[in-house]
Design brief:
Length: about 160
């Protein structure tokens, strides 16, 4: 990978992390915002921002790791933490959107039907169902990936052990 690609990967991941940090600060109340402009619980904003922070870390570690020529022992754990952090915070936001209390306004179109309002029930079912599926995937990853990193996972991925 060229130096330009390394710089791009670092800037791209860093931009995600900075935007996420600003959203976390907004959700935590450190950056003031008019209360009527916030339409979610503060913890949802913090989780949403944290998903960007973890996503930026994930992108940076994934794009820069082949350039190192060898696998430093902590790199797989850093990738694990960034992936688990992203999956956990992102799934929390999705589950809250689908199953959390309060009014939601879902709009969009389904196949050939368009009209703006796809309905509260359909939106909640779609987000709630995807959120539950994402929580299951997150739990699976949380348990299986450390076993893979430690070489204790009995199944192979792509025909080889990690």
């Amino acid at each position: 990978m060229s130096e330009h690609k390394i710089l791009f990967a670092s800037l791209f991941g860093g931009l995600f992390a900075v935007v996420g940090a600003l959203i976390v600060l907004l959700g935590a109340g450190i950056i003031p915002a008019p209360p009527d402009s916030i339409h979610a619980a503060r913890w949802v904003l913090v989780a949403f921002g944290a998903s960007f922070v973890f996503g930026g870390l994930f992108v940076t570690t994934q794009l820069l790791s082949p350039e190192m020529g060898h696998r430093p022992p902590l790199l797989p754990w850093l990738q694990y933490i960034s992936t688990l952090g992203f999956l956990g915070t992102f799934s929390a936001v999705i589950v809250w959107t689908g199953l959390g209390p309060g009014e939601r306004r879902f709009s969009g179109s389904i196949l050939f039907v368009s009209g703006g309002n796809i309905g509260n029930l359909f939106g909640r079912l779609a987000f709630g169902g995807f959120g539950v599926l994402l929580v299951i995937v997150t739990l699976w990853f949380a348990v299986s990936e450390p076993l893979r990193i430690l070489g204790l996972w009995p199944w192979r991925r792509n025909g080889r052990n990690r």
